[in-house]
Amino acid sequence: MKRPTIADIARRAGVSKGAVSYALNGQPGVSEATRQRVLTIAEEIGWNPNSAARALSGAAANAIGLALRRPARVLGLEPFYMELISGVEAELATASYGLMLQVVADSEAEIGVYRRWWGERRVDGVLICDLRLDDPRVKALTELELPAVVIGGPDGVDGLANTWNDDGAALAETVEYLAALGHRRLGRVAGLSDLRHTRVRAEAFDQACRRLALTLAVTESTDYSGEQGAQATRRLLSGPDRPTALIYDNDVMAIAGLSVAQEMGLAVPGDVSIVAFDDSPLCRLVHPPLTALTRDIPAHGARAARQLLDVISGAQPPMSQQMTTARLTPRGSTAKPAPTITLR
């Protein structure tokens, strides 16, 4: 089937192609009745503006972009991004905006995607996830003058708008909760070590453990996958002074860790307690259900999208917006540690 064109609209409306162009672009030069007739016909025949023509005219793309640097096998299994995107989409739908999503291999490829999207006027702005230490994307976006909102921060954004959670406070609360239960040996299964929020969590974990004089605090880094989460759990639980409680940087790794503990013959929470960062429905479907740090991820996505739309429109939203700190939701996977039995 031939793609509908401006000429098709002009023929059906009985006007010139120039008049159609004025009507479609909201420019003066045609009556309101003609404008409405042209718009109605365009919708009836399924006409959409050509992206190249839009770029030349400087018209808005009515879309934002999101490039994710995560392995596809991890991205497809991690509830966090599905919930984040659902919140973004819900907000964009109210503004008749679309979302362009692309998975990339590294920061260089991601910056290349931004250059192409912006150069071809495919997007009006972008959302940035997984802020890294000395992140080259921040400088590149500033140089491109591409409207952007960082989902993360507030450090390391160099003037870009951002929306963020206080992960450090959430981690400290978790350590304090486990210490109050009587745990003295804690382990943490962390995500990618070069991410800023991983660093924030690591510092909060270490500081809280020192402040509470915990005798063992060990961190294992992973790629957020269930496979690496399981491997890290096995290492932590195989040592002579195994932790009595483990904190995981996402729910997928926590569920994998639960499975490993049970395979090793350890009772949860009798022998080891487990806490997950991010409370997806998966945390409530396993046995025992997982204690988790609960936050409204769809609301975070919606807030970031709203902030980006404001930046695109030229409004002056608060440049740094803090979301509600994740709250600890205790469930069946945490309890007092089993008493130590001394053999005589």
TrEMBL record:
Keywords recorded for this protein, A-Z: DNA-binding, Transcription, Transcription regulation
Ranges for domain HTH lacI-type: 4-58
Pfam families: LacI, Peripla_BP_3
Biased composition (Polar residues): 318-327
Annotated stretches, region: Disordered: 316-344
MF-aspect GO terms: DNA-binding transcription factor activity; transcription cis-regulatory region binding
Protein name: LacI family DNA-binding transcriptional regulator
Annotated organism of origin: Natronosporangium hydrolyticum
